[in-house]
User: Fold these one by one.
Assistant:
Number 1:
Amino acid sequence: MRQDSRLSRMLHVLIHMGHHDGALTSDMIAKMLDTNPVVIRRTMAGLREKGYVTSEKGHGGGWTLLHRLEELTLLDIYRAVGEPSVFAVGPAYDMPGCVIEQAVNATLTDVFAEAEQLLLKRFSDVTLADIARGFVVPGGPNASGQGMAEES
Amino acid sequence: MRQDSRLSRMLHVLIHMGHHDGALTSDMIAKMLDTNPVVIRRTMAGLREKGYVTSEKGHGGGWTLLHRLEELTLLDIYRAVGEPSVFAVGPAYDMPGCVIEQAVNATLTDVFAEAEQLLLKRFSDVTLADIARGFVVPGGPNASGQGMAEES
DNA sequence: TGTTTCGAAACAACATAAGTTACATGATTT
DNA sequence: AAATCATGTAACTTATGTTGTTTCGAAACA
């Protein structure tokens, strides 16, 4: 399957919400992301459980952001969408008696854990406001632009 | 889908081959990994293309390692199995005009690229001999054992 | 000739995000 | 109260890629 884009999509939506007064309906958001409102509700449910957004039914209802963009990190959103497995490749999980396989798995586990730690550390260093501003990673290569308006 | 285990499996096989005189058949290897010989041939084909192993048909045939374990790094094998996408999560690829989505994608791309660089750097620092010896990562946490015999 | 072994094609199984349909629930407007 | 709007949820389908399996053919060897 292609890569999990829930994190990316939720970041996108939340920044829009942070720059928008009033609620956004699932339909509006779905059009923004070029997808289906049910997919939006499904994914946003995780954000609601964490208390980052609320949803209201009926006229004038929809989704509302409960925090400022400065208060939310990439790590928060990653966790809210279910902390999906970061890696598409990893050790085989046979747990056999073979010491060679054990050594291989130990090595891979260590290396991937280190990379994941770095990733989550970077996630925790970046707020949604930083992204909206065009800042990328504190110590990172920072290849993107600066100063960022909004629009669909 | 569950994680791609080709790298892990090939490391396992190659270390066995490094400690084994003569050829190993796909059937023997398949039993070692508890899978099917066709899967072995399919995956080992990448190693053969890189010149790390050869395969011979007929009686006494099978797979033979052409390099010493000291000469092969984790990175070599990762590339030989096709350099599969390391991450299961990533940016949405709509490439819209929306500057917010662009900023999100730029940030994620940067962060994931940094993590991947670290991963590949670690891969390049570890030889198959290191793994067999129980050494893990030069600068890493090194959580595994030391001194390593062989056996399936 | 017969057996071993790889090579390759073709297809099924499996897992998971994503897309879709359908209906129930609740809130607001008229 | 009725109509409308919007979320909540279940169920099913689609898409994608690794893995598993069957079935041939080709080559090497006894």
Number 2:
Amino acid sequence: MGLPLRDLTHPTELPWSALRGRLLAVDGNNMLYQFLATIRQRDGQPFTDRAGRPTSHLIGLLYRTTSWLEEGIRPVWVFDGKPPDLKAGTLRTRFESKERAQAAWQEALAAGDLETARRKAAQTSRLTRAMVEEAQRLLSDLGLPSIQAPSEGEAQGARMAAEGVVWGTASEDYDSLLFGTPRLVRGLGSRQPHDQGRAAHLIERDALLSELGLSQEELILVGLLIGTDFNDGAAGYGPKKALKLVQQHRGWEATLRTAGLDPAQLEPVASIFRSPEVAVGPLPPFGPPDEEALAHLLVEEHDFSEDRLRAALARLHRRPVPVPSAPAAPGHQTVLDGFGPEGA
DNA sequence: CACATCGA
DNA sequence: TCGATGTGG
């Protein structure tokens, strides 16, 4: 998933407390996928309700968002819409690797190798439309906004961050940097002991660009060379070699040709990053949780323990008074310019 | 993922 | 009291 930009970045540590009162566009598909991969039993079986429907995504969503809210982090979940046609190859490759993982999972189980079984099972995770809809229902019952992007969620989040509607984007993938997010927060899930100051990692686009001596256009060029969800990349080019080539500033076409790529063919890929399809409209409001609806969804429909739900909800009542997070450009009418009323 | 439980 | 391990759904 995503593109391997990690080696080019130098993230700074970002304590959760630094995010208090801030709005974050959360990559919903990315997060839910992580939950499906991680929240499993020893043999790799996902958690299910009594009807056999998976619940791992709901477990992760409930606990993680209540943790965030308790710290005053204000998540705006953004979900993928229709993938660009150019993503078809990536989607097919992912499907095939899931099939292989499925077989490897069964093999490991038969061999009694639980550790391998769990790892392979994680790779079989599939996020269905139904799971996303349930997650959106859960968010709505929690009183949290969610946004359905027309296409890539990372693009939608990046635009919202660039417009100052949210402070930054949260994802484990690096795609939103190519989409122009000013701030990417990674590791918002890796929790440490509750008291011992949890920390995420922050990548700031401006700092990244000046460190690498690149423009935003050139960062996209690096992406095209190493490969994105929408193109294969140049043979023999990884992050290091791609960066080195682009740093020679030979221009768009010469750079691609040097790496054996066809500039004309890559133009549509570049335009996905430069001017992606994004939604325009008011930011849905935050509101108070609907505890009855939550009990119905989680306890009655999906067999959650009532005690655990209550414990999770108790953390919402402990949440700090929200500090208004300043939009970057007050007074300017831009996409998603609305700020709903604060919840209780 | 977060929480409960257990043994050093 | 704390890391390791188990449980929840």
